[in-house]
Amino acid sequence: MKTRTLGNTGPAVSALGLGAMAMSGTYGPSDRDESIKTVHAALDAGVTLIDTGDFYGMGHNELLLAEALRGRNRDSYQLSVKFGMLRGPGHEFGGTDGRPEAVKNFLAYSLNRLGVDHIDIYRPARLDPNVPIEDTVGAIKEMIDAGYVRHVGLSEVNAATIRRAHAVHPVADLQIEYSLISRAVETDILPTLRELGIGLTAYGVLSRGLISGNWTPGRADDPRNHSPRFATGNVEHNLSLVDALRNLASAKGCTVAQLAIAWVAAQGDDIVPLVGARSRTRLTEALPALDVQLTADDLTDIEKTIPAGSAHGDRYPTPFMSSLGTGN
Q1: C-alpha distances in angstroms, 7 versus 59, 124, 196?
Q2: What positions carry a catalytic annotation?
Q3: Can you list the residues of the chain whose pLDDT is less than 50?
Q4: pLDDT per residue over 112-167, tens digit each?
Q5: In the chain, which residue ranges form alpha helices assigned H by DSSP?
Q6: From CA 167, how far away is CA 267, in angstroms rounded?
Q7: Cα distance between residue 11 and residue 54, in whole Å
Q8: How many CB atoms lie within 10 A of CB 251?
């Protein structure tokens, strides 16, 4: 497995990370045994970066990972954990909490659920509009000094917030959506990260299955039915982009999903794509993406096929868009 370093101060991690969110019911029921076997398969393949959030399944995801990681050398993998998103018993979201005392509280619970003595990268999932980012990052810095955290991370914030956070403590990486059809980071955020020496971990590289070539409409209980990009009138157009991409993938001898992952990885050695596989089948498909070599001509052809801004519909439902540091 190839490795990449997250920014100037972050850890060396596998060039492809595993996002565990889908293992906790985000896109419908998941098989616990298969989820654990998928984590094991990822580790055995050399994947070292595992991303989770304390609010994924209201702690379910962390408990699942604790079981999957039991017995593994703690130095053989890195845990990236998001915090601060508040949930209710009906799974509803209740805003964010970035207060210093909340940071330490969330961390204590995550350490216990995961069964580890430290978190490698700890990050607020969203910016708390009522708490200066300096205060939130300052609390993480205290936890670094105390040995409970190794690195500061950020998620879905704008360039100005990145600068403010980085002034308090060096930031290892920003986690943000980045894919062939979600490219808003390219305008201000990616240049800022590179200026400051901060890495990027890209989630949503397959746009929640939309550009994987594997998703098909029809499931009444699919949560993606509430996503603007999957809405009638938008999804037909977006799937047509996938069909166009399929021809390019065929010419490269790879799948659409592999081409989409390879495109993100090709945008810079400071970028690590996160793949949200919840089965060994999807993981097995994703891993060879690192071996897909895209030439300058390939990248030009992809850009012509899916120019920036091609997708129809926002990447999140309207109520959530205001909490993001950038758009689509």
Answers
A1: 29, 18, 8
A2: 56
A3: none
A4: 999 999 999 999 999 999 999 999 999 999 999 999 999 999 999 999 999 999 99
A5: 32-44, 60-69, 100-114, 133-145, 159-168, 189-196, 235-252, 256-265, 280-286, 296-305, 318-321
A6: 26
A7: 21
A8: 11
Strand duo 119-124 + 149-155: pairing: parallel
pLDDT of residue 219: 66
pLDDT of 93 reads 85
User: b/e string for 129-162 if b means 16 or more Cβ within 10 A?
Assistant: eebebeebbbbbbebbeeebbbbbbbbbbebebb
pTM for the full predicted model: 0.93
d(CA 18, CA 4): 14
Q: At what angle do helices 133-145 and 159-168 cross, to 10 degrees?
A: 40
The type of residue at 94 is G
CA-CA distance, 106 to 114, in Å (whole number)?
12
Identify the CA nearest to 199 among candidates 320, 49, 68. Answer: 49
Q: What secondary structure does DSSP assign to 100-141, as a single string?
A: HHHHHHHHHHHHHHHT-S-EEEEEESS--TTS-HHHHHHHHH
The token duo for 19 is: 């996002």
Cβ-contact 155, 123 below 8 angstroms: yes
Question: Rounded distance, CA 142 to CA 249, Å?
Answer: 47
Neighbour count for residue 70 (Cβ, 10 Å): 9
Residue 316: the pLDDT is 80
